[in-house]
Amino acid sequence: MTRHMFLTHEFVEFIPDELEEGTLYICVKLATVVHRCCCGCGNEVVTPLTPTDWKLTYDGETITLYPSIGNWGSTCSSHYWIVNNRAMWARQWSQEQIEASRALDRSEKERYFGGSEETDSLEMSTKKQEMPQSTPMKKSFWERLRKFWG
How far is the C-alpha of 84 from the C-alpha of 138, rounded, in Å? Predict the structure, then answer.
């Protein structure tokens, strides 16, 4: 097993049947990013791009996904960030943290899609994860332009 620290990305119309190690496949049409787990175990990792799941930033050269990737359903239980086409390893979570995060994810989806009552704001703030500080995020052209005119 080889850990992949540096990744490449490929924009595709459809997700290929065979995934290459160390490649992020971005399918805008399906609003999904797929890759093999960065730990080298070979598991397929699917990150749907939705308001309640992952967000993708493309700066013209690299890809960043937010929040982190937690492969809690896989035997490897890898936990990492993808920032500027790099896998940045994160601390492992306890089973209690994993279960709390899953419950919060369900509650956010219910709230967003009109399911149950509003989630407590304190609970929502616990979901927010900090991006690794070692790699500053570049502001997009539009963000800089809005700030300039705002």
Answer: 10
Do strands 63-70 and 55-58 pair parallel, antiparallel, or not at all (unpaired)? antiparallel
Query: Are the C-beta atoms of residues 27 and 47 closer than 8 Å to each other?
Result: no
Contact indicator for 8, 38 with CB cutoff of 8 Å: no
* Tokens found for residue 149: 């005119």
Overall pTM surpassing 0.85 (yes/no)? no
Task: With a cut of 50, say whether residue 126 has pLDDT above it.
Answer: no
Pairing status of strand 8-11 against strand 23-27: parallel
| Number of residues that make up the chain | 150
Tens digit of each residue's pLDDT (9 = 90 or more) over 64-96:
999 999 998 888 999 999 999 999 999 888 999
| Ramachandran area for residue 27 (φ above 0: left; ψ -120 to 50: alpha; else beta) | beta
Task: Decide if 42 contacts 19 (C-beta within 8 A).
Answer: no
Beta-carbon contacts of residue 143 (< 8 Å; ≥ 6 apart) = none
